[in-house]
Amino acid sequence: MSSPVVFIDGDQGTTGLQIHERLRDRTDIRVLTLASAERKDPRRRTEAINACDIAMLCLPDAAAREAVDAIVNPDVRVIDASSAHRTHPDWVYGFPEMTPGQAERIANARRVTNPGCYPTGAIGLLHPLMAAGLIPDNYPISIHAVSGYSGRGRAGVDEHEGPGAANAPSYQVYGLELAHKHTPEIEQHARLGQRPVFVPAYGAFRQGIVLTVPLASRLLASGADGATLHACLARHYADAAHVRVLPLEESGALKHLDPQVLNGTNDMNLCVFQNVEHGQVLLAAVFDNLGKGASGAAVQNLNLMLDRG
Questions:
Q1: Which end of the chain is more exposed for a tag (fewer CB within 10 A), N or C?
Q2: Which residues carry out catalysis (predicted)?
Q3: Angle CA(297)–CA(298)–CA(299) in degrees, nearest 5?
């Protein structure tokens, strides 16, 4: 039996390059990419996407929709790394650890939409707690996240690593219109009862994310506190290979969170911090925006679809 053909459409972008690097030495698949002269040829791209077993789309949203519309071969399966289909009811959400049975749904899916980087952390923290009823539906959720500049794609990398790097900002908060495109994705897949306030930022480091969600104990479900929330997360991810919930004692000993500590991996650390005296809890996620937040997650979903675990 011939090896499955995996076509990376958009392999010159940040995510596509990382996926290509992660698949480069694989001998169980054949990776198909287009030569530079063919990448903007609609006919050649249509031929390639219809000749593969699994297409991995690393494209802007509009181009990703066009690529999907060009598929006429019913055997072609798709992993879309753009945000074009993340809230679409006909696409399987590609977060294997999100809920029991999600990995199996991904494995059997024809269309998988890769989670966004920020939503991976927010949903990873909030979904189990919302599902367990520990955070009420009417809780006013706020989320703050700081990502490495590669989260901006090639523009961010050029700004910080190109000729004008000396003038690149050290830190910048954005999304001030409170309409970031990841917000509906977080609201839907975290099972929130209302739209969260989401405030993202970029730092002067290449990759990595720290995402935090502050909570007031008095607004949680009756009797819930930091230990309760931690126990729920620990149960949910007990068997997860790529998501680790740090023990309360380990989290309590931390003095800071390094967004770069898991760079180059497909792993995510979740932490719960609490101040019992003041009735405050802080949820935190640390992971690589190019790993579990993008290319690592895409390859994890690919492995599930290829029955490689």
A1: N
A2: 117
A3: 90
